[in-house]
Structures are given as structure tokens and as C-alpha cells.
Amino acid sequence: MPDPNPYPHRIYQEIVDALVSMHQLTDGYTPRHEDRTAMLCVKIAEHLGLPRERIDVLHMAAQVHDIGKASIPLALLNKPGRITDEEYALIKTHVQTGYDILSKIGFPFNLAEIVWCHHEYLDGSGYPRGVRAQSIPLESRILTVCDIVESISAERPYRKSLGMEAALDEIRRLSGTRLDPRVVEACLQVVEQDTAETQSVAA
User: Fold this and answer.
1) Would you call the peptide bond into 128 cis, given omega within 30 degrees of 0 as the criterion?
2) What is the pLDDT of residue 155?
3) Do residues 88 and 54 lie in contact, with contact meaning Cβ atoms separated by under 8 Å?
4) What is the per-residue burial (b if ≥16 Cβ within 10 Å, else e) of 13-46?
5) Within 10 Å of residue 48's Cβ, how many Cβ atoms?
6) Does residue 131 contact residue 120 with C-beta atoms inside 8 Å?
7) Beta partners for residue 159, in sequence order
8) Separation CA 194–CA 203 (nearest Å)
9) Less crowded by CB within 10 Å, the N or C end of the chain?
10) Cα–Cα distance measured from residue 59 to residue 51, given in angstroms and rounded to the nearest whole number
């Protein structure tokens, strides 16, 4: 018998899409970064065999994981070269701001929590709360890995791309200390498969 109350994914996706559209009005880069990160998150979550509902929530969370950067001056977000400790402290506030925004929406799932934890690390060295290990939702651990890979491999407003190999080397280096090794391994396999498929098509 069909579920009389099907999962209302479409409504919540429309809310997320509206937030993304608002952010695009002031920041041309961050929403594109979030979209690319979200696509990689979905591939890794599927590789790990997560249920469809959790994948959908992860995708939405990834689409707005940096929504809190709307409160940071663009001149700072796009600043080339080194930033000061004070500037870095201001940038770090985007996680709490994002959580504060998203937690005001009545999502019936842990979307705000996923965003809140996307800069937390297994060893407790992350921010804003320093939570560790299994206290970090699996979706957040996936988002963290994808955020690092996309940030390093893509061109940023303040620097050129460092390349996919540099990105993969970085997550290998952090695997087991800051990053979930199961997620890192899944990411490596997904990227390898994508690369092979791209090369096959090109040939």
C-alpha cells in the first residue's frame, strides 16, 4: 500500500533552492562551489550505500553548507595571499551562522546539524565546537572530504586550481586523523572511476 505521507523532498528542495538563489545575488562563486561539492557528496554516499532519503538530505545540506558566508565581506572571501588570524577567525564564523539560519527552518531531518559539523574533524581539532569521531554525523564526514577535494582542485577567486592529485594527496594525508578513512577511500574510488570514464569517452 502506498505511503499516505510520502517523503516531502520536493518542498524542502525548493526551500534550499530559494536560499541558494538569494546567496547568488551577492556571491557568484560560493554557490557554484557548493553545487560541485554536492555532486561529489552524492556520488560518495551512493558508493557507500546510504539510503536514498539520507542522500537527498546530504545533497541539500551540501548545497547550502557555506550559506553562512553571506555574512562575510566578499573582499575578505576573495582576498589573495595570506589572511590574518583575525580575518580567519571571522571566516570561521560562517559555520555557526549557517547553522543559525538553517535551524530556523523546520526541516524534519538533520540538515542544519550536517552543516554545523562540516569543519569538525575526527580528532576534535575542527570548529566550531571541537566535536569528534562518531559525534560527527556520517553525512558531515562525507561533506568535509568533498569540501576539501573541491576547494583544492577547483579554481578559487584568489588562486588557481592546485589540481585533483594535490586534493587527493591531502585527503590521504588526513585520513584516519581528521578524516574518516572509509569516506576517503570511497572518494578515491569515485574520482578514479570518474577519471576512467572521462578518459574512455575522450578516446
Assistant:
1) yes
2) 86
3) no
4) eebbeebbeebeeebebbbebbebbbebbbbbbe
5) 16
6) yes
7) 156
8) 14
9) N
10) 12
pLDDT tens by residue, 64-84: 999 999 999 999 999 988 899
Cell of 141: 564526514
**Which string of DSSP letters, residue by residue, matches the chain?**
---SS---HHHHHHHHHHHHHHHHTT-SSHHHHHHHHHHHHHHHHHHTT--HHHHHHHHHHHHTTTGGGGGS-HHHHT--S---HHHHHHHHHHHHHHHHHHTTS--SSSHHHHHHTTT--TTS--SSS---GGGS-HHHHHHHHHHHHHHHHS-BTTB----HHHHHHHHHHHBTTTB-HHHHHHHHHHHHHHHHHHHHHH-
pTM: 0.92
Q: How far apart are CA 2 and CA 144, in angstroms?
A: 36
